[in-house]
Hints:
It is a single chain. By secondary structure, the chain is an alpha/beta fold. The chain has a single domain, classed as Arginase, Chain A (3-Layer(aba) Sandwich), CATH 3.40.800.10. The protein has 12 helices and 8 strands. α2 packs across α12, α5 packs across α6 and α10 crosses α11.
Amino acid sequence: MVNFASTDSKTQSKIQSTYDPNGVGSKTANIFGLPSTPETAKVVILPVPWEVTVSYGAGTARGPAAVIDASTQIDLHDPEGIRIWEVGVAAQEVSAEWLDRNDALRAKAGDYITALEQGESPDAWADLINEINQASVELNAWLEAEATRLLMSGKKVGVLGGDHSSPLGLMQALAKIYDEYSILHIDAHADLRMAYEGFEYSHASIMDNALKLPQISRLVQVGIRDLAPSEADRIQNSDDRIVPFYDWTLKERLFTGQTWHQICKDIISNLSNTVYLSFDIDGLDPSLCPHTGTPVPGGLQFSEITYLLKQLARSGKQVIGFDLCEVAPGDSAWNGNVGARVLYRIISAMIQSQQQD
């Protein structure tokens, strides 16, 4: 287990001695206005501007930039005592190449999805489906290589999507390093579709693809409230490899007198000691993320999420990586603002979990 406090380089120590965490968040600095770079930081965020397969609202490819832009407005006091400027957190630049590829393919995919909704057979679109599937393979390989390089240098890595297909390459990289890990999946959707709409790496198929990795021992899903009958059947017949905490079940437990503290302990008890956190912003109440691609009524409040993350960080389990996906900026700063604050709490929980004895 990494003790971040004891692994600072001379460069990072110099940054600590000159940086003022009470100052104005600099737009010329890195994420959260921090002075670290991906070279000096202990936590590196990989933006993945990808939303080719989204099947409803679009805009999440611009999510990483929106979250990074909003992050400089966050005041840095952490009630858990984490000082992220001392650890060092930085984001790589958003890839213009992948954003351009996304935009070109997204336009084509949108036409295809519209045709499907009008009852057209996918057979006429086979070439396009193959093109998008191949591009997704290349994206996953790029992300896996980037994440592996960073992980092997001793850094912790998170993905900032993009749609929820974005982080698969990071999951694959972690599976090469860890013999076993579980996933805490916060989402309105189960994401267990098999090649939804013909896309092998659809945003709706991320957990189906994740479970193909034998290193993933268990998938614990929280806030799910919109799923297909086939997904419900798969969960029920998974021999507890998939453990759901459906939104309607969470609400029933709360309405009948259980505390959120009790429920959080139950959720965390189903995780293994090594945890990957996958967070789709639509797991929240949609008033907090109105422009996400597939908003669903219900969901979790910000305070409930922060408490769950706090309890996870205190549990003794080790958070080894994360993703935050499906933030779409829309026409205001609100979505990016909420996304940045969720991201800050996720990073804090990961750092705290790494510092546990």
